[in-house]
Amino acid sequence: MTTINHRVANVSRRDFLKQGAGLTVGVMLPGAMNKALAAAMSGPGKAGDGVPVEGLFSPNAFVRIGTDNTITVISKHLEMGQGAYTGIATLVAEELDADWSTVVVEGAPADAKRYANTLWGPNQGTGGSTAIANSFMQMRQAGATARGMLVAAAAEQWKVPAGEITVSKGVVSHGSGKSATFGELADAAASQPVPENPKLKDPKDFTLIGKSAPRKDSHAKSTGQAKFTQDVQLPGMLVAVVAHPPRVGAKVKSFDATEAKKISGVDDVVEIPTGVAVLAKDTWTAKRGRDALKVEWDETGAWRGSSEQLIADYTKQLDTAGAVARNDGDALGALGKADNVIEADFVFPYLAHAAMEPLNCVVQLRDGECEVWNGEQLHTGDQAALGKLLGIDPSRVKLNMLFAGGSFGRRASPTSDYLLEAASIAQAIGGRAPVKMVWLREDDMQGGYYRPLYVHRLRATLGDDGMPAAWMQRIVGQSIVVGSPFEPMLLKDGVDVTSVEGAATLPYAIPDLYVDLITTNDSVPLPVQWWRSVGSTHTAYSTEVFIDMLARAAKQDPVAYRMAMLKKHPRHAGVLKLATENAGWDAPLSKTEGVKRGRGVAVHESFNTYVGQVAEVSIKDDGTLTVDRVVVAVDCGIAVNPDVIKAQMEGSVGFALAAALSGEITIDDGLIQQSNFHNYTVLRIDQMPKIEVHIVPSAEKPTGVGEPGVPPLAPAVANAIVDAMGKTITRLPIGEQLKA
After folding, report:
1. 354, 408, 530 from 450: Cα distances, Å
2. pLDDT tens, residue by residue, 223-272
3. How many domains does the chain have?
4. Which residue numbers in the chain have pLDDT < 50?
5. What is the pLDDT of residue 283?
6. What is the phi-psi region of residue 493: left when phi exceeds 0, alpha when psi lies from -120 to 50, beta otherwise?
7. Which of residues 378, 408, 438 is at a domain's end?
8. Where are the beta strands (DSSP E) in 413-569?
9. Which residues have C-beta within 8 Å of that of residue 225, sequence separation ≥ 6?
10. Which of 76, 438, 669, 722 is the residue whose CA sits 20 to 30 A from 109?
11. pLDDT digits (tens, 9 = 90+) for 447-459
């Protein structure tokens, strides 16, 4: 068995240029960083705007080939469990014709000029299921460029035409019997001219893309070699935990650290803008010191609302018009004249991100510079925020991108909240020691950021054929972009596009369709942020459950009902057909005494990926729900690594099912009621259903798979519950409603 080596490290510009013993290949990012998806995928521009270095390609380098045959792929995207390192390495290795076992991956430094996410404008970062989508052409061309140089070097040495040379699994060969490994050619290839337009492979010739090559992070993670923030140890480092205000808007009035400082190992206690930090030799000692603190909070400006009050207030606001997100035809007029209107209100609670690795960050201040070790997700924004806080140029903020044990959106903080907190602590002690700031799970669960609470109202009337003739949807909730750096991009005419995605983009053919949004940020100060699959987490549920309600009212099969409205959306229809056929939609479910069984379906597009899901459930007489089986069909364009896609769909089902069954952050008198996994439960192993994943064969450019598997799960389960027992669940989580 071949051992797949993996290492994760940050590559400094200086180290990057010092590789005299190997070949470095780079490609430029497109000049117009904010072009649309199709344009961004058309391929990178030409190299040439960097500082020339003899024998090396220094600007925007993604590939390094050493004389030891090691091929190092520089990933500009964070690996947080979604398979980004494997996918990006696959793209390079495919065009390079590399031996997969010799490929390793390193995290890129923070440098938006070289490593920008081409779909986000001139910004570096990972999110929105964009890693493979924005890397597909860019990384393939990086590999093809390297291959072209190796071939040119061999042709020059062997005095043969380059067209007669072949490359396979890291070996360059000629029909005359001459051959050389990549490592043997690295030095000579470094002096070759850069191919301006290296030829890319025809997809029919792919040997890695479309195949399930072993992941590049599995070996390191399964052997304990993978480096996360918690593994970072620096000389003289102190560990800090922070006492945060119990309510949003509260501040430190005074504190007494006498008892905390009596604990052996506690080094210091300092006040920072977000609370009081205790620094100690290790995490446990810092926690004990925090527990011994006496803090008096000034709560004159604290918010004392409750989630139930918000739901009641939002429900009242459903009677008021909002900012228009979509208006086809005259839905409001048609509904006003209709004799028979079908209506439903939906309630979606606040949700926590609850990643397995709680937030943490290591910061070192010295010589007018800041160095950070972190599961870094938004490089450019974090650099800017840290630079502003510390009064230094962002270029003097070095970010070391380590593995992250999950994020689900939390580490992509638009306010850089936890990084700024860590830097504030280091600043408060005068930078005399590196600081590892650690948030315990309770810290983030009770004082972090949340998926907003939303209330929806849907109303529809049916035509003579039973199909929806008019459809109106109103959404009330907080915006995750108002007040953030993303507001100019994502707030259009008063509409946060992330709040209405999936509703304003409803694919069904409905003549009169209206969607509006009421944003509540002015009255609700609770911190909110994107949560895995963002707006589709609630819009997919409300729209897909409501579609089933309409199908039942029309006495039509819910699959046939959907298919009739998706004639202009073949990719939606394709995954719906694939999922239902493999689920045996028309076959009867097995029966068990004392158990009601049902089957439900949902289809949804998010992040340009189409997913259909069929769920089968069993419900005992006491209301106990079991999700027995989920059949998933996904159309994500070219399947770069089918095994990674399957894993992401399986993980999405588990993640979404936990939220659907029991996920809920509740607030009483301004206090978050949940604190850890005992009362904010993640899915237990015995709750995981049998999952089947089917991938639509496609020649389209690849799109994301980290998030799109989440939205259809909850509505598919809810529709299965209706099929089993006739009960429509309009308020999540499902578990609480089944008990009601």
Report:
1. 10, 11, 8
2. 999 999 999 999 999 999 999 999 999 999 999 999 999 999 999 999 99
3. 3
4. 1-60
5. 98
6. left
7. 438
8. 435-438, 454-462, 468-477, 491-492, 495-496, 512-519
9. 6, 219
10. 438
11. 999 999 999 999 9
Q: Residue 582, SS3? A: helix
pLDDT at 736: 80
DSSP letter, residue 440: -
Residue 22, pLDDT score: 40
**d(Cα 634, Cα 603) in Å, to the nearest integer?**
10
Spatial distance between the Cα atoms of 137 and 28, rounded to a whole number of angstroms: 12
Which helix or strand (DSSP H or E) is residue 633 part of?
strand 625-635
Given this model, what pLDDT does residue 197 score? 87
The two three-digit tokens of residue 116, written as one number: 């920008």
Tokens of 376: 């870094």
Distances in whole angstroms, Cα of residue 729 to Cα of each of 83, 455, 535, 536, 544: 34, 14, 19, 18, 12
Residue 23 identity (one-letter amino acid)? L
**Which pair of structure tokens corresponds to residue 639?**
């399947």
By the 10 Å C-beta count (0-12 exposed, 13-18 middle, 19+ buried), 196 is classed as exposed
For residue range 377-401, what is the model confidence (pLDDT) as tens digits? 999 999 999 999 999 999 999 999 9
Note whether 417 and 459 are same-domain residues.
no
**Same domain, yes or no: 126 and 255:** no
What is the number of other CB atoms lying within 10 angstroms of the CB of residue 332? 16
CA distance linking residue 663 with residue 172, whole number of Å = 54
Tell me: do 264 and 119 sit in the same domain.
no
CA distances from 34 to 118, 123, 312, 575 (A): 7, 9, 41, 30
Residue whose token pair is 């459809």: 471
| Burial 670-685, CB ≥16 within 10 A → b, else e | bebebbeeeebbebee
In sequence order, the β-bridge partners of residue 288 are: none
The last residue of one of the domains, among 403, 438, 473, is: 438
Alpha carbon 90 to its chain's center: 20
Structure tokens at 517: 């949004």
What pLDDT is recorded for position 20? Answer: 34
Query: Scanning the structure block, which residue is given the tokens 């700024």?
Result: 420
User: What is the pLDDT at residue 67?
Assistant: 84
Both 531 and 615 in one domain: the answer is yes
Q: Is the peptide bond before 59 cis (omega within 30 degrees of 0)?
A: no
Q: What pLDDT is stored for residue 1 in this prediction?
A: 31
pLDDT of residue 61: 63
- What CATH number is given to the structural domain containing 455? 3.30.365.10
Q: SS3 for 464? A: coil
CA distances from 633 to 94, 277, 501, 580, 720 (A): 26, 48, 21, 9, 17
pLDDT at 739: 76
Cα separation, 480 vs 657, whole angstroms: 23
Separation CA 401–CA 12 (nearest Å): 11
3-state secondary structure 53-103: ECCECCCCEEEEEECCCCEEEEECCCCCCCCHHHHHHHHHHHHHCCCHHHE
Q: How far apart are CA 537 and CA 502, in angstroms?
A: 9
Is 1 a member of any domain?
Answer: no
Q: CA 600 to CA 597: how far, in whole Å?
A: 10
Q: Which parts of 618-733 fold into alpha helices (H)?
A: 642-662, 713-725
My answer on whether 172 and 218 are in the same domain is yes
Tell me the CA end-to-end span of the chain in Å, nearest whole number: 55
Q: What is the pLDDT of residue 15?
A: 40
Measured between alpha carbons, how far is 534 from 180 in angstroms, rounded to an integer? 49
DSSP state of 234: -
Predicted TM-score (pTM) of this structure: 0.92
Cβ proximity of 453 and 350 under 8 Å = yes
- What lies within 8 Å, CB to CB, of 621 at 6+ separation is 594, 595
Give the count of alpha carbons within 13 A of 678, CB side only.
3
